[in-house]
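Researcher: Good morning. I'm working through a list of sequences from a screen, and I'd like to move beyond sequence-only analysis. For each chain I'm collecting a predicted structure so we can compare shapes side by side. This is the next one on the list. No need for commentary yet; just the structure.
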Amino acid sequence: MRRVLFSTISLLALTTVSAMAADILRAAPAYKAPPVLAPVFSWTGFYLGINGGYGWGSSDWSAFGEASPDGGMVGGTIGYNWQTGPWVFGLEGDIDWSDMRGSFANAACPLGCETRNSWLGTARGRIGWAFDRIMPYVTGGAAFGDIKASTPFGSQRDTNVGWTVGAGVEAALGLNWTAKVEYLHVDLGDVSCGALACGLPTNVDFTADIVRGGLNYKF
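Model: Good morning. Structure tokens for this chain:
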């Protein structure tokens, strides 16, 4: 009986030691680091940038005819965005050198009449909806620029304040850089050109459609 009891105790001890040894030698599960999530882009902050594009439009001379100015432009941009949820509200201003010009000739102006815009600026509000790093937006506000009406008799140049509306889309290229493409419709009103400058008294207006791109650095 003692032999049976001793054998049973020995067998249990051997089994326990073997199980403990198996647990010690069993490889621990590999550690998996939690996935790294890309930070959500914030549109809030000041920014500076450059822009450039092309504009085309119309200029009606009330006593003569109509010109179709077009040409390129390039300039600088400054602005501020404030984001709340997906909504982005901003203020933006820009000033561009412009080479939009167009001329016509007819019986009233046989030697040619020209409308030219040499600089253009805007001060606008923006409202956008951010899909993280992509933001479509609408924009509108004031437009500033010059209108120069020229004939063989002389010329008249005035700086006018008008309005602009448009839309665009902006994309974040990194933590600080963004790029945009936008369309603007601009109306600068008209200038009065007297008989001494234009041969006959006339009002010369200027409207334009502009497509341009921009690159901004956000602080």
